[in-house]
Amino acid sequence: MKKTVLVSGGAGFIGSHVTVELLEAGYDVVVADNFSNCDRTCYEGVKQITGREDLPLEVMDFCDAVAVKALFAKYPIDAVIHFAAYKAVGESVAQPLKYYKNNLTSFLNVLEAAQEQGGCNVLFSSSATVYGEPDSVPVTEATPRKPATSPYGNTKTMCEDILRDAVKASEGKLKGILLRYFNPIGAHPSALIGELPRGVPNNLVPFITQTAIGKRECLSIFGNDYPTPDGTCLRDYIDIVDLAKAHVFAVTRMLEGKMKQACEVFNVGTGRPVSVLELVNAFEKVNGLKLNYKFAPRRPGDVTAIWADPSLANTEMGWKATRTVEETLKAAWAWEKHLAGK
Ligand code: WQD
């Protein structure tokens, strides 16, 4: 009997890539999204890639408790992967209540519905942002979390605690896995799905590709006076398809009863620190182009350096990032050209 996975926020950047991998791994998937932060491009792209024209889509807001309960009553949900949340760091600083209300309410509604159906496997989309500015790198899952530098980051920390407490109180009915992503970048090799930021991109790679295609005038590299080899910040950039595959490993771990604790946490990264300048140079080299960029002042809230020790996910889940930065940046550029009709 096929297992069914609900992907909340499944029309978004990460949700759509995870949906492709789940379908290709033999799971049934229900995509639920309110399209507040994306359009239908990636949902349509998922259907093209997988050939699943019948892919169920529920257009709904996870802040609507009645709609969430109806969703759980309509489908035999064996696991839920929760992406539905706002994720712009800067916007969360300007509008904290919008972020707390949306990101916490939507997750609480999912957990309540899961409890009411007698239990479920819940996979939460967390973030390395919970580590703040780590005292040492690479970070492991035992690295202490630090006070978040933004309301967005704080909602991730709070949702981790909410899941842990709900699992603990559920007497085995709820199982949870927290996946802490580092920096997801790139696009599906088909160039039919990828990152689609609305307005001016906050994140580095979409700003790079939009500059290269001519949508943006010039990339500003925020700070080249950091205590790092080339003065720019270090991050763990993980290919979006590698990241998506980690979700299949995690869901399978839950559904096959392989978990060692009722609530587990895994870093999902490459373990490979890359600087902003290295990424820009790699993008230019692998795509054979010159990028217009300049050095600008530091961006408030940025951490100097963070990258993962992914060995727990490697050993416990058997998952490992395999794509090179070059492959990822090639795919990111192909996606941007696809969007421009080139
Ligand atoms: C990476 C580096 C910037 C843009 C955030 C969230 C995280 C995750 C990914 C949300 C930094 C530099 C960026 C630009 C630049 N989730 N940069 N010029 O801040 O590491 O992580 O996004 O989507 O939870 O915290 O990612 O891509 O914004 O920045 O120089 O135009 O690129 O200063 O050093 P970040 P990012």
Description:
The strands form four sheets. This protein has a seven-stranded parallel β-sheet, sandwiched between helices. It contains eleven helices and 13 strands. Strand 5, helix 6 and strand 6 form a beta-alpha-beta unit. It is globular. The termini are far apart. It has 342 residues and is α/β, with parallel strands linked by helices. The site of UDP-4-deoxy-4-formamido-beta-L-arabinopyranose has 18 residues, from helix 7 and strand 8.
What is the strand and helix layout of this fold?
Elements: E1 4-8, H1 13-24, E2 28-33, H2 41-50, E3 57-59, H3 65-74, E4 79-82, H4 89-94, H5 96-116, E5 120-127, H6 151-169, E6 174-181, E7 183-185, H7 204-213, E8 219-222, E9 234-235, E10 237-239, H8 240-255, E11 263-268, E12 274-275, H9 276-287, E13 293-296, H10 311-317, H11 325-339
Parallel strand pairs: 1-2, 1-4, 2-3, 4-5, 5-6, 6-11, 7-10, 8-13
Antiparallel strand pairs: 9-12
The structure holds UDP-4-deoxy-4-formamido-beta-L-arabinopyranose (WQD).
Residues 87, 89, 127, 129, 183, 202-204, 207, 219-222, 233, 235, 276, 299, 302 line the site of UDP-4-deoxy-4-formamido-beta-L-arabinopyranose.
